[in-house]
Structures are given as C-alpha cells and as structure tokens.
Amino acid sequence: MTKNFSPKSDGFFVPGFLSMKKHQYLITVAMMLLFALIGWFIGSSYKFKYEATSVLVTNLEIVEDTNIKEIMVDSQMELIRQLMYHPDITSAVLDKEAQHNNPLTLDQLEKKSVIERRLNSTLIKIRDTDPQIAKRIADAWAEAAYTRLSEAYPHAFLVSEAKWMITSIEDCQSDELVFETNFCQELTTERAEELINEAKKIVLEEDALSLGLTKEIQISQYQPASLPSEPVAGSQSNTLFIGALAGFLLSLILYELPVFKTGDKNENL
C-alpha cells in the first residue's frame, strides 16, 4: 500500500511565501514601502560626491631616426603627472579656493583629486559633494599647471640645447661618421672647450627652472571641466530601490517565523 505525501506534510519544506493566506501579501507591500521610505530618508540626508574632470593637453615632438625612445616619452608624460602636485601649482589652487571662502589644506586637496594619464593628456579629476566646487578646483588646477609648466618650457629648451651641444662635441671625438660633418671639421679644440663650458653653465643655471622638462614636450592647452550633473556613484533613487529590495527580502524571512506557520500546521492536523 502506497502512502501519499501532501505538499504540506512534515517530509517537505514549503517556503512561507508560497503558502500565504489571503491578504498576507500586504505585509510584503508594507515592508517594501517602509524600507523604501527609510532608503529615501538616508539618500536625502547623505551627500553624494560629484566628479569634475579638466584636461591638460601636451604635445610631444618626436623626430624619426633619433635617440628618442618610447620609454623616454613615457617618462616625460609621467613627469607631467607628478608635476601636477608641484608646490607652485597646488599653492595656486589652494589660494584660489581660499578667495572663494573655501579654505583647504594640501592633504584635503590630495584626497579630493586623482591625476591620470591618457595618451598625451593629463586628466585632473576632482570629487566633491558640491558640483560647482569640484568644477572650480579642476579648472583652477588645470590653469595653474598650464601656466607654471609653460613658464618652465623656455628653460627646458635652453637645457636641452645645451646638453645637445655637449653631446655633439663629444660625438665628434668618438663617432667617425659625426667627425666627418662640417660642424666637427670646423671645430677647434679651443672652440670646443669654450662651447662646452658655456653649455655647462646654462645647464647649471637653467636646470632647476626647467622642472625636468625637455624641449620635445610642449604644453599645448588646457580644457576646463564640464559641470557634473550626476553623482559619481549612488543617488537618492538608488537608496530608495535598495530599501524596497531589503523590505521585500525581510518579508520573505518573516514568513518563515513560527507565528506564520501555525495556521499551516493546524490545517494538516
């Protein structure tokens, strides 16, 4: 004789939400509304961050068949990224913010910022709870960097030319092909020594002012940031949705409590 098992017998587990009584679904609706309201309240009180991005555009002059290699180009672009935190640049940004009654420390400025490279451009990303402040800092930073690095370029040009002169004179003595050029043929020992001394003097005087830049990299322009309209991550609508989802899941757990199972057991008796 076979024994039939009811879906509600002790041998089966039936989730509570599959055996809800009439109008019991209203508990789920009520909990979703309640937790959605809690999520809305949290979202309205929490300050989300906005991100503004300005761009510093550089131009690299690469001449074929020269000793300029890819790693040298990469190092120059990395230098630009590091120079974004040069004291002259960050001080200009902090001073401008102080003029707008928003005094910041260097540590606060660094925590707000992310400097990234993208091909020949340097991206200045600023995050703040106020989109206007984020844009203002990003624009001020790009402008300060453009101004300071443009001031350093003439010094970098002089240093590059001086180093090229020293290298060319040394090549006249070590490279047979270079020795055959008119420059080397017309170069006397006294003139070579004079040119080298002048070049070394230029390097000593101008190197610190060049900030480590070379003549091959030029600071072309900067692009202001657009005003961000959406927060970087999360919004009030997201917290509302998460709250409603949490209420729904909690209601499913609630149906597994003994108080909701009592009726089912009585029906099985």
Quickly describe the structure:
By secondary structure, this protein is an alpha+beta fold.
List the helices and strands and how they pair.
Elements lengths: L24 H21 L4 E11 L9 H14 L3 H13 L6 H7 E6 L2 E8 L2 H44 L1 H4 L2 H4 L3 H18 L10 E7 L12 H19 L3 H11 L1
Antiparallel strand pairs: 1-3, 1-4, 2-3
Helix pairs in contact: 1-9, 3-5, 5-8
Please characterize this protein's 3D structure:
With 269 residues, this protein is α+β, with helices and mostly antiparallel strands. The chain is built from ten helices and four strands. Strands 2-3-1-4 form a four-stranded antiparallel β-sheet. A hairpin with a 2-residue loop joins strand 2 and strand 3. The two termini are 22 Å apart. The mean pLDDT is 80.
Comma- or semicolon-separated keywords:
about 270 residues; four-stranded antiparallel beta sheet; elongated
